[in-house]
Amino acid sequence: MLNGFMQQTFLQNRILDYLIFIAVFLVSVFVIQIFKIIILKRLKKWAEKTNTAIDDLLIHIIEKTLLPLLYFGVFYLSTRCLTLNSFLKKGIDALGIVLLTAFGVYFLIKIINYALENYWLKKRKDVTKERNIKTIMPIVKITIWGLGIIFLLNNLGFKISAVIAGLGIGGVAVALAAQAILGDLFSYFAILFDRPFEIGDFIIIDDYLGTVEHIGIKTTRIRSLGGEQLVLSNTDLTSSRLRNYKRMGKRRVIFRLGVTYEASLEQLKEIPTTIRDIVKSIDDTVFDRAHFFSYGDFSLIFEIVYYIVGRDYNKYMNIQQEINFKIKEEFEKRAIEFAYPTQTLYLNKTNKTE
Question: pTM value?
Answer without folding.
Answer: 0.49
